[in-house]
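Late entry, evening session. Most of the bench is empty. Finally got around to the prediction I had been postponing all week. Sequence below, unchanged from the version circulated by S.P.
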Amino acid sequence: MNKRIDFLRSQIDKEQWQYDYPLMDWLRARVVAVDEGYVKMQFTVEKYMLNPIGIMHGGIMATVLDEVMGAASFTLGRPNGFATVNMNVDYLNPAKLGETIFAIGKIVRAGKTILHIEASIVNANDKLLAKATSNMIVTAVQLPI
């Protein structure tokens, strides 16, 4: 039994996180699906997420991608947290105000100290908007769950 997967599954369709995580509340992240090494979340593109030309800011997209990769690492159930070492992002299509988007994070390889993770953002029509790869390293920080 993986308590972290159970926790994330308990968040499915909740509008506010039942965990002290202000960034996920700010992004209004909604968990859609969870499994070991896999997380899918839903977001709505809001005005505060836009850049001056009216599309979702690349920094917000990168944050969403980083968060779902971090959530995927959380599902492994390891005692310590992971931190991003590097991240490569490709922005392929814009996300517009009011659009519902989905971010998916998947563990590709889970080594003892380094994880290799992929993530993507798609719209409701499954059009690829952005994708990323990242390596994360184990930290000394013990996780509460």
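Two things to note before I forget:
The domain at 3-142 is CATH 3.10.129.10 (Thiol Ester Dehydrase; Chain A).
DSSP finds three helices and six strands in the chain.
Will write this up properly tomorrow.
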